[in-house]
Amino acid sequence: MDTVFVGRNIIFLPEVDSTNSYASNLLKNVKLPEGSVVHTTHQTHGKGQRGSVWMSETASNLSMSVILFPEFLELHNQFYLYQISALASHDTIAEFLNTSQYDIKIKWPNDILINRQKASGILIENTITDGRITACIIGIGINVNQLVFDSNFKATSIKLVTGKQFEVSEVLPVLCKHLEKYYLMLRRNNTEAIQAHYMNCFFAKNDWIDFEIEEKVQKLKVNGISKKGLLLLEDANGKVHELDAKDARWLY
Ligand code: BTN
User: Fold this and answer.
1) 3-state SS of the chain?
2) What is this structure's pTM?
3) What separation in Å is there between the alpha carbon of 201 and the centre of ligand 1?
4) Mean per-residue pLDDT for 141-147?
């Protein structure tokens, strides 16, 4: 493992309900070192964003959670945890693909798309005590070798685009390496560099995209993100709207 602390302590479970839930329960009873990873080959109740279910074929994909203690981070800056996780997953996928051939992008806030199809999802669960983030569980799923996906989802995997099979155990240390790199940038307060990298990978920047907002479909221009990490969308009259992930559904 090419890291100082992320992934140095790995808890491997052949099967678990959810690596995020397991990590959260473990933290209630045990003092774990920062950077500990919970990794499994099969989640029976994998959790997705906004209460959804994360489905992943057994042993084909990477499912893991990383435990961090970002007490140094002001609460109003917690969206940087989304950015660094997305960047780590982005850079990991890029390392297994020939980047010039594939378009690898971060769809705000933290889905990773290869050629507009989702290859990775992230679920972050923070514990906040006395106004500080005392624990952060970053759950990351990367589609590595799965070839068949539910046709309702625009999903893909590293194998589906490259035709090559990779060991999931090869992908895990690469993800730990990139996550540690970006987490250390955050610890050093190098938020400008994080922001610049993130915007470099931003999906649909300046494109007009259909969004579902309050049950209506609207075509809006993707301007970027606000200081608070919210999505900035411009309407046809030039008015800029600041939206939370739960309020705007991408239809692309
Ligand atoms: C999403 O895109 O909806 C987020 C998916 C997050 C999936 C990962 S897999 C490892 C970790 N454990 C979970 O239960 N969920 C996350």
Assistant:
1) CCCCCCCCCEEEECCECCHHHHHHHHHHHCCCCCCCEEEECCECCCECHHHCECCCCCCCCEEEEEEECCCCCCHHHCHHHHHHHHHHHHHHHHHHCCCCCCCEEEECCCEEEECCEEEEEEEEEEEEECCEEEEEEEEEEECCCCCCCCCCCCECCHHHHHCCCCCHHHHHHHHHHHHHHHHHHHHCCCHHHHHHHHHHCECCCCCEEEEEECCEEEEEEEEEECCCCCEEEECCCCCEEEECHHHCEEEC
2) 0.96
3) 21
4) 97
